[in-house]
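Notebook entry, structure prediction.
Reason for the run: the old model in the group folder had no record of what sequence produced it. Starting over properly, with the input documented here first.
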Amino acid sequence: MLIAWTTVANRADADRLAAAAVMPDLAICVQIDGPITSQYLWQGKLERSDEFRLTFKCLPSTIDRLETLILSLHPYDTPEWLVVRAEHVGEKYLSWARANSSTPPL
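New structure, fully documented this time:
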């Protein structure tokens, strides 16, 4: 299983991206946290903003399509997109994920 993250400025965008990922079975689940506070450099200036973090859980077979979708719908010019492989996934949860995915099991 893979876990991916991005952030957006408001809850409406977070809900829109989450639904866009779950409805076509590209993500098994999307969790929305926030607001959180992010600090970063943008065009040489320190920025601070409240954001909503989306955590996507998906199978490796869908990650490329999920990334393409999220980046095409994302409102930011340079969206955060981080993906990591889960070191360990509980067997019951992984079985549920596979059973609820339109992609064939690994």
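Summary: The longest helix spans residues 11-22.
The old model has been moved to the deprecated folder.
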